[in-house]
Fold:
Amino acid sequence: MANNIRRLRLAFLLTPRDLAARLGTDETDIFRIESPTYHLDDQWIAAAARAFCVDEHVITDEEIDLDAIVSASFLTEPAMTVVFCPVAVRYGLLTLTAKIAGMRVARSLDDDELARAAQQMAAFVESENPAANDNDARINRLKLALQIAVLAILQARGVRVESHFQQVLDEGVPAVAQLIEGFSRIGREPAF
Structure:
């Protein structure tokens, strides 16, 4: 099924990076989902609709009037402020999954699954809307989101966790959260 993501992105004068930030994902996902041969699932359609502030049918309607949509839109601010680097989140999820369930399970995760997990984690961290300067609250929500995401991945794959599971989470989640936080600061800190 063809989609209008690229046409909408260009009509709204967004770069792939801008759209990735709105979707809470990585630029590589933008190139993939903009492909006319890529089949968008319902989650991507809903996320794109939120990012462009349009109805879901606009994402897949082949006969949309882009000029009318752009002129009627109130697209001014990002749909979601991405707090954490999506690439770091993906590698963090892969690391924790591999540590708990092994490399075979970690390698079985596809790009869409990781992108959705990163989006859901960003939405979860942002849902509490802690004060902008309350970094501890954001980190605690990130740690909780990492635990939930890893548990969801393992459950979806039918992985039976071993007795060391909780210990690995207790030791690994803070380290992964610190890594994600560190990578997320790159490019956002003022230059001196």
In short: The radius of gyration is 18 Å.
